[in-house]
Amino acid sequence: MTKAYGVGAKVSWSWGQGRASGKVADVFQKRVQRTIKGAKIVRRATADNPAYLVEQEDGGKALKSHSELEKD
């Protein structure tokens, strides 16, 4: 089983030619859907690959799977 990141953990992910980062705001271990900037985002989270709602410093939000993230 993957060790999930906790709320408040600093994480980053590949974004275009660089990286984006933020803090974990919520953790999900089952299917989750959120509308972010008008787009419906779905992650099929499990205990082995949880999903995270990440809040960025600029106020933006992202819904990411554990496999997409690295802990900073």
TrEMBL record:
Pfam families: Hva1_TUDOR. InterPro entries: Hva1_TUDOR (IPR021331). This is Hypervirulence associated protein TUDOR domain-containing protein. Residues 8-69 form the Hypervirulence associated protein TUDOR domain. It comes from the Bacteria.
